[in-house]
Amino acid sequence: MLRLIALAVLSMGTFVAAASSAEAKVFRGKTSQGRPAAVIIGSDGLLRTASVNWRARCRDGRLRDKSYFLRPHDESSPDAFADAGTYRRKDGRFRIRFTASIEATRTAGAGGERWSGSFRLKALVTRGGRYVDTCRARVRFMLRPA
Q: Of 11, 14, 50, 67, whose CB is crowded by the most CB atoms within 10 A?
């Protein structure tokens, strides 16, 4: 009887350990601009979501926003990912077309696991179909487990 209880407890512990390792991992940190960034790695070990808060310089002022990168991604492996895309937004009388890209690699060492990479953005601002401005941002980031 004691053997059965010990076997049940041991198998339950193995099941709990396997279930906890299959959960998503969240990594948070700051960009080189001091703004928040985050990456969520799914239970399959691949990138689920990445988000970067940024501030872009324009010829006339600044633009700031947050960009998300959702599945499916251009490239994703357990040790690196890359994605790029374009999205649009209307801001009052202005129309903005954002072209953003992100790439990152995972490093695991004595200090623990972390993701580091870069984010680039180009925003084309128009009004009434005419060019107004171009804004650009290039930031680096380092993320640690949350």
A: 50
Radius of gyration of the chain (CA): 21
What is the Cα–Cα distance from 138 to 54, expressed in whole angstroms? 9
Handedness of CA 90, 38, 119, 137 (dihedral sign): positive
In this structure, are residues 116 and 105 in contact, taking their beta carbons and an 8 Å threshold? yes
Helices (H), the chain: 2-21
**What is the band of 11 on the pLDDT scale with cuts at 50, 70, 90?**
very low
pLDDT of 111: 85
3-class secondary structure, 54: strand
Residue 130 has pLDDT above 70, yes or no: yes
CA 103 to each of CA 70, 91, 135, 137, 139: distance values in angstroms, whole numbers, following the listed order: 13, 28, 20, 14, 11
Q: What was the pLDDT predicted at 21?
A: 53
Q: How many residues does the chain have?
A: 146
Angle at 143 between CA 117 and CA 32, to 5 degrees: 60
Instruction: Give the span between the Cα atoms of 114 and 76, in whole angstroms.
Output: 16
The tens digit of pLDDT for each residue in 77-105 reads: 999 999 999 999 999 999 999 999 999 99
Contact (CB, 8 A) for 141 and 37? yes
